[in-house]
Amino acid sequence: MTHITVKVDGTTYEDDVEPRLLLVHYLRDRLGLTGTPIGCDTSNCGACTVELDGASAKSCSVLAVQADGCEVTTVQGLAKDGEWTRLQRAFHERHALQCGYCTPGMLMAARDLLRENPHPGAEEVRHALEGNLCRCTGYQNIVHAVLAAAGQQVAEEATA
Amino acid sequence: MIPPAFEYTRPGSVDEAVRALADAGEEAKVLAGGQSLLPLLRLRLAFPELVVDVGRIPELRGVREDGDTLVIGAMTTHHDVVHDPLVRRHAGLLAQATATVADPAVRHRGTLGGSLAHADPAGDLPAVALALDAALVVAGPGGRRTVPAREFFVDYLQSALAPDELLLEVRIPKRAGWGFHYEKFHAVAQSWAIVAVAALVRRDDGHIAEARVALTNMGPTPLRATAAEEALTGADGPGAVARAAEAAAEGTRPSQDLSASPEYREHLARVLTRRAVLTATGTG
Ligand SMILES: Cc1cc2nc3c(=O)[nH]c(=O)nc-3n(C[C@H](O)[C@H](O)[C@H](O)COP(=O)(O)OP(=O)(O)OC[C@H]3O[C@@H](n4cnc5c(N)ncnc54)[C@H](O)[C@@H]3O)c2cc1C
Ligand code: FES
Ligand code: FES
């Protein structure tokens, strides 16, 4: 067992964990933060994306012990006092989800993009989301939602 | 899936890390960004007894200059390589190729050293290290040694690193005035190259004075396309470059997999070499 201290969505946790415990399992099974799903076993789908010390990371590809001393933000830490972020609202308004399984990862990846590039074009949004798979939406509305959240014109035909 | 059980240590310095590796012998595995190792552990394709996490050793991270050489710490992440002004200025080929690796989340964690130590012939950075004539500085129980990239990639997923050795830094000669291009062919945006070509070209008076061409995924290790390089010397226009590119697959041993046959890979090597060289010379 290894002792870790991790701040998750603003709360500091101390735990003894097995070194092999994946961060995503720590979040889901130990902390009960099941908003972060697991979609694959190959590090490909991005459903499990969280923010680790300010940068997006696939939490299925990080050990909990690697997050020792770090700050983690999950999709459950985005809303403040029940108030959605602009990005979350845009996903809602633009119908950027169907089953919703990819949505937590999409939100975290999009948030990462908007931090580095607050006014991306459609092409840049697509590139930034290349590590996140959606099996339902065809991506169109996800791209529109991110553009809308960034205050960009959404040219429906330009992104077709 | 859940990885097999292992012991874990997180040394704070290179010396501590080397000692931990030496004590554990063959049973230890270095953990850098974990973007190749953790998928392997999850699929239970690796069973280390000890994982040595080198992620918090400050001296392994960052980019500096040493005269005519650019020095990149093994633990420098792909994201930091892509955005580093020194890398962009002196090793633009590396910055360009690294931007095509995986996706933003993987690039935040995956490292240059991890990509080279992993020695995957489908990885983008081994061929780039070969094209740039990089030298890899390695520490082990017997001290430090420097391995040129052309001797570092020994076989499929096998580097010249001994189990108790740690890759410290990557030294790249600066190449003022060389054109470059990394041409990657892949089926899905975040996926590995089916084939890719790294080209570096020095032009003189309208013709190519010198060329270095390296191939990704054309054999069990990254390869130099030496026949194409020779034919490029003195080439003076798209026609001459196209003829040189015809030699790009000479001496390669491409594999067969779900994405491509060996013949198709050879075809890609020729087409991508022509594109890479023309773009590197600014005539593409
Ligand atoms: C979805 C996905 C897509 C990807 N796509 C691409 C792609 O298109 N192109 C590409 O090139 N790569 C790709 N990768 C791999 C990625 O580049 C990894 O970051 C890289 O292969 C390994 O780097 P790492 O720092 O994560 O190393 P780790 O996974 O930590 O380690 C990899 C291996 O190297 C050894 N090692 C690491 N560092 C050292 C060191 N300093 N000294 C000695 N040994 C060391 C480890 O013991 C291990 O055997 C992809 C990965 C994923 C998950
Ligand atoms: S569950 Fe992490 S990438 Fe798919
Ligand atoms: S909404 Fe179902 S996977 Fe994206």
UniProtKB/TrEMBL annotation, chain A:
Pathway membership: Alkaloid degradation; nicotine degradation
PANTHER family, A to Z: OXIDOREDUCTASE WITH IRON-SULFUR SUBUNIT (PTHR44379)
Keyword set, alphabetical order: 2Fe-2S, Iron, Iron-sulfur, Metal-binding, Oxidoreductase
Metal-binding found in the keyword field: yes
Sample GO molecular function, one term: 2 iron, 2 sulfur cluster binding
Name this protein carries in UniProt: Carbon monoxide dehydrogenase
Keyword Oxidoreductase set for record: yes
Boundaries of every 2Fe-2S ferredoxin-type domain copy: 2-78
Pfam family, one: Fer2
Source organism phylogeny: Bacteria, Bacillati, Actinomycetota, Actinomycetes, Kitasatosporales
From TrEMBL, chain B:
Molecular-function GO terms, alphabetical: FAD binding; oxidoreductase activity
Chain ranges of the FAD-binding PCMH-type domain: 1-177
Record InterPro entries: CO_DH_flav_C, CO_DH_flav_C_dom_sf, Diverse_Substr_Oxidored, FAD-bd_PCMH, FAD-bd_PCMH-like_sf, FAD-bd_PCMH_sub1, FAD-bd_PCMH_sub2, Mopterin_DH_FAD-bd
SUPFAM superfamilies: CO dehydrogenase flavoprotein C-terminal domain-like, FAD-binding/transporter-associated domain-like
Pfam families: CO_deh_flav_C, FAD_binding_5
Flavoprotein recorded as keyword: yes
Keywords, sorted A to Z: FAD, Flavoprotein, Oxidoreductase
Gene3D superfamilies: 3.30.465.10, CO dehydrogenase flavoprotein, C-terminal domain, Uridine Diphospho-n-acetylenolpyruvylglucosamine Reductase, domain 2
Protein name, as recorded: Carbon monoxide dehydrogenase
